[in-house]
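User: Teach me something about this protein's shape.
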Amino acid sequence: MTYLFYTVDVFTHTMFGGNQLAVFPDAEGLSTEIMQKIAAEFNFSETVFILPPTIKNATKKLRIFTPSQELPFAGHPTLGAAYILGISDESIDKNDDYKIIFEEGVGLVPITIKFKNRQPIYTELTSPQLPEFSDEIPSIEELASVLSLKIEDFRQDHYSPQAVSCGLPFLFVPLHNREALKRIKLNSDRWTKLLENAWASSLYVFCFDPENEGSNIRARMFAPGLGVVEDPATGSAATAFGGYLGIRETAKNGTFHWRIEQGFEMGRPSFLEVTIDKIEEKIDNICVGGASVLVSRGTMEI
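Assistant: First, the predicted structure itself:
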């Protein structure tokens, strides 16, 4: 069988930036084993397979794989898959914003595709789950050993380490500045000892010291447990990060927005837009979006 695929750079306006993604827009007939082998062959942080839905009201079903395992939810595959549908699916009205719903392991994920001149220019997901929090995390001293940093590099104030999940857990670790973020060298032995079996084993390290005008936050993400040593742009982490940031906003009600820059230390600059709504101190909604760029189109014989 011949299967069409696209490769896309997600969370960027420029080719060779953002996070790489392979998209199979018509994956019917592929087994789980073959999907996993394809993901390992591409060796991107994720590969996504689009299938007919099995749940009422869903537009399509997505299955998302890292090089080593399947995920119940991931941000840049969700947004990149929507971008490819915006290019290739002739049933979509490309004259205005178009809403679709993806069926994923975590549940139904609403997406908005924004068009200009009948081309998709921006895709945005709404989190399928509200954030879940955990404070069962390593100490600052232990985190310093994992990241090869000094204790004084870490913030321990209103912003302190915390684990959050909106379908996929991440451990959020705040640093004082971009210089400290740049010095991170993941100690795999210490990570294995302290985090491999933790609820949130993936590390999302950030600071409020961005490089680019219009950005609010600089971040790096490390997920050796998912087969991803470092990720240039992480939509599922940005979704959970909306929960982390939202509960620290003192206002009881309102809409809050942050622009995150990630991937610069890897040579793949990425920009992620995070928006949350709070009602009576509770987070009511989290959205994550960004631009994508088509890189290639090809076929695979299986």
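Now, about its shape. The first strand starts at residue 2 and ends at 10. The chain has two domains: 2-128+290-301, 132-287. If you'd like, I can walk through any region in more detail.
User: That's plenty for now, thanks!
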